[in-house]
Specification:
two-stranded antiparallel sheet, alpha+beta
Amino acid sequence: MERLKAYNAEHSDNALTGEKARYHNKYQGQPEDYQKHIATYGENYKYVTPANKQGFHSEFIINDKTNNLVSQWNAYEIDENGIVNSDPNKQYTKEEQIQLVDGNSVNFAESAGGWDRHEELDSNPVSKYDPEVRKKIGKEWSSPQMDSNKDNYFNTDKSEEDANKKLKE
């Protein structure tokens, strides 16, 4: 988080901004388990770079409890030759699973052009080329809902507002 703040201080004309992060706050269990999950593991905030002339931007996911980047690469074992072990049969801890399902911390997405274009550039390539472990573990996790009457409600406006506040602290 401190690096993102430092970047913003040095590049005010090209600063990062907070954005809603519902898909980066998955949980296991029943809807009523969501709030307990957030209390235990923290909420993830999404920060995006401004779109360049081609409309692409990068996303960074930061956990509010650890202030660290959330990334699948934190969960994998990498040997001395740089070979990544993404064995779907390995037993991953809950913390590693969180990194796997909420991560892909830096990717590219279309900021304009509609949801179809965003899926074409961001969501579809990720799911198509995802390692089997992310696909397997991802089936056990759910995204919170946007319905304020649900136990697993995720307030997207508050998420964006809180992310932007953290950038200014």
